[in-house]
């Protein structure tokens, strides 16, 4: 009987995990099913581009995984039972259930309101394709002189506000950041970021917390009103609540607690990758929610699963960061070099060179998804019978 592997979610983490498993494991011994609510792979790192009217290339998952042995199931996951090893789904043909031997949980994250009143009712976000399309329609409906407020001074907020300001110079665009603008960056990168905001005419409200969002703007923690016809909320992300409703051990954020091999500490048949995982990174600090964490965690989990099934050596965890890439519209950007534990180095690439470098990185990530069996030599090993001693030859 084949070992059944089910991967939940086909974002950067889930799609990479499924593709890498297909390269590592022989189809005669294992069956891989990838479950995703949408039929296409969505480039989440480009949602700010989609929101400003740019078109993104569609990537049908059935086309992406054709010939790999990965079975794509378009369905919404509505339950996980890690004790029975089953997943409840709702697809076009109604509710159903999928049994697994090994589960890779990669359902990712969505926007979090942080408990701020009015966010759900009055703010837009960029956590997914549908939300980005709704924001695109709203921005397109704004007349010249319209007002847009982006809340959140992290990577998503900076990319969103600069993209909107560049695409619609006829709008009055502002940013509310709880801390200083780019205060985690190096001096060179922070100076460039401030200059870009000035060049694009962005009004920046630093050290500004938001207490409430209304239909006509936002009210700050100190009682000021920031007028906006459109408010874009980028102040944090939250994971899918599904894991917290199971017997899986989760942390207070709802992420699945995993060990150094991305394996659940409570259920050895479950692995969590990407935003869904509370995973140790360099120096023991948890990995941050990002594509930069999701892809290497997916690769590690796939290699570990393959090693355990085929009796080969467990690969070490070497996940660490290299850079933070920030687009500032289509012709400007910042590539901030960082240490493996994500602390900024003094050096950074800025301007058009940074924009080109980030575009290369984004295209490479999407290309690797679209060609899941092209990146590494195929080493499809056979699974060993259950209980057979594990050997230590390199994977």
Automatic annotation (TrEMBL):
GO molecular function, one term: NAD(P)H dehydrogenase (quinone) activity
InterPro entries registered for this protein in UniProt: FAD/NAD-bd_sf, FAD/NAD-binding_dom, NADH-Q_oxidoreductase
Protein keywords: FAD, Flavoprotein, Oxidoreductase
Keyword Cytoplasm included in the entry's annotation: no
Cofactor(s) the record lists: FAD
Membrane-crossing residue ranges in chain numbering: none
Listed Pfam families: Pyr_redox_2 (PF07992)
Gene3D superfamilies given in the database record: 3.50.50.100
Residues forming coiled coils: none
GO biological process, one term: aerobic electron transport chain
Record's keyword annotation contains Lipoprotein: no
Ranges where the FAD/NAD(P)-binding domain occurs: 4-283
Family: Belongs to the NADH dehydrogenase family.
Name of this protein: NADH dehydrogenase FAD-containing subunit
Species of origin: Actinoplanes octamycinicus
């Amino acid at each position: 009987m084949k070992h059944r592997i089910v991967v939940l979610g086909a974002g950067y983490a889930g799609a990479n995990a499924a593709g890498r498993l297909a390269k590592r494991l022989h189809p005669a011994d294992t069956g891989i099913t990838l479950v995703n609510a949408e039929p296409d792979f969505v480039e989440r790192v480009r949602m700010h581009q989609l929101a400003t009217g740019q078109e993104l290339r569609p990537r049908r998952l059935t086309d992406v995984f054709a010939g790999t042995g990965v079975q794509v199931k378009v369905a919404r996951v509505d339950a996980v039972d890690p004790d029975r090893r089953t997943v409840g789904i709702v697809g076009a043909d109604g509710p159903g259930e999928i049994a697994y031997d090994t589960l890779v949980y990669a359902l990712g994250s969505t926007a979090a309101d942080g408990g701020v009143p009015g966010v759900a009712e009055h703010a837009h976000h960029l956590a997914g394709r549908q939300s980005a399309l709704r924001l695109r329609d709203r921005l397109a409906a704004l007349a010249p002189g319209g007002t847009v407020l982006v809340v959140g001074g992290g990577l998503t907020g900076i990319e969103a506000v600069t993209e909107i300001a560049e695409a619609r110079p006829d709008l009055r665009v502002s940013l509310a950041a709880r801390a200083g603008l780019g205060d985690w960056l190096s001096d060179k990168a922070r100076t460039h970021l401030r200059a870009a905001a000035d060049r694009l005419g962005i009004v920046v409200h630093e050290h500004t917390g938001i207490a409430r969002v209304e239909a006509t703007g936002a009210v700050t923690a100190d009682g000021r009103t920031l007028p906006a016809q459109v408010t874009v909320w980028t102040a944090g992300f939250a994971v899918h609540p599904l894991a917290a409703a199971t017997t899986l051990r989760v942390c207070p954020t709802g992420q699945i607690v995993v060990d150094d091999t991305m394996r659940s500490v409570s259920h050895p048949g479950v692995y969590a990758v990407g935003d869904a995982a509370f995973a140790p990174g360099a120096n023991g600090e948890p990995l941050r929610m990002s594509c930069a964490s999701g892809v290497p965690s997916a690769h590690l989990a796939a290699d570990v699963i393959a090693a355990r099934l085929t009796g080969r050596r467990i690969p070490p965890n070497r996940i660490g960061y290299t850079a933070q890439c920030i687009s500032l519209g289509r012709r400007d950007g910042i590539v901030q070099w960082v240490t493996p534990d994500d602390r900024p180095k003094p050096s950074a690439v800025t301007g058009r060179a940074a924009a080109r470098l980030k575009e290369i990185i984004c295209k490479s990530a999407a290309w690797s998804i679209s060609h899941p069996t092209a990146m590494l030599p195929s080493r499809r090993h056979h699974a060993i019978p259950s209980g057979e001693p594990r050997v230590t030859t390199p994977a």
